[in-house]
Amino acid sequence: MNHTLTITTNNESSVVERLLQVTRYRGYQLAGLELTPLAEKAGLSITLTVSSDKPIHLLTSQLHKLYDVRDLRLASADIAALRA
């Protein structure tokens, strides 16, 4: 099942590395990554798409704990997989 997360973070050099490390350690496969600097250049908007059969809350609960993460939202899930 694919999940898309929208994450707002501080603009730190290691934030993307930490996000990907937690994603990998929790057993989720990276399906897409998009980085956009925020207007005030003090942060990043990250769209992270992951794939796994595991419940998404196992990943989101860990990402919320990262100190550079300001906001995290589950943007979408794979609707076809939900109907199966």
Q: How many discrete structural domains? A: 1
Q: How confident overall, as mean pLDDT? A: 87
Oligomer: single chain
Instruction: Give the proportion of residues in helices.
Output: 25-40%
* DSSP helical segment count: 3
Protein name: Acetolactate synthase 2 small subunit
Enzyme class: transferase
Organism: Arsukibacterium indicum
GO molecular function, one term: acetolactate synthase activity
In short:
The chain has 84 residues and is an alpha+beta fold. The chain is built from 3 helices and 4 strands, in the order βαββαβα.
Description:
This protein has a single domain (2-83), classed as Alpha-Beta Plaits, CATH 3.30.70. It is an alpha+beta fold. The longest helix is centred in the first third of the chain and has 11 residues, at 15-25. It has a four-stranded antiparallel beta sheet. It is globular. It has helices spanning 15-25, 57-64, 79-83, and strands at 2-10, 29-37, 43-51, 69-77. It is an enzyme of class 2 (transferase). GO terms for molecular function: acetolactate synthase activity. Pfam families: ACT_5.
Sum up the structure in keywords.
four-stranded antiparallel β-sheet, single chain, alpha+beta, 3 helices, acetolactate synthase activity, disordered C terminus, transferase, 4 strands, Alpha-Beta Plaits, Acetolactate synthase 2 small subunit, 84 residues, EC 2.2.1.6
Show the helix and strand layout.
Elements lengths: L1 E9 L4 H11 L3 E9 L5 E9 L5 H8 L4 E9 L1 H5 L1
Antiparallel strand pairs: 1-3, 1-4, 2-3
Keywords: Transferase
GO molecular function, one term: acetolactate synthase activity
Pfam family, one: ACT_5
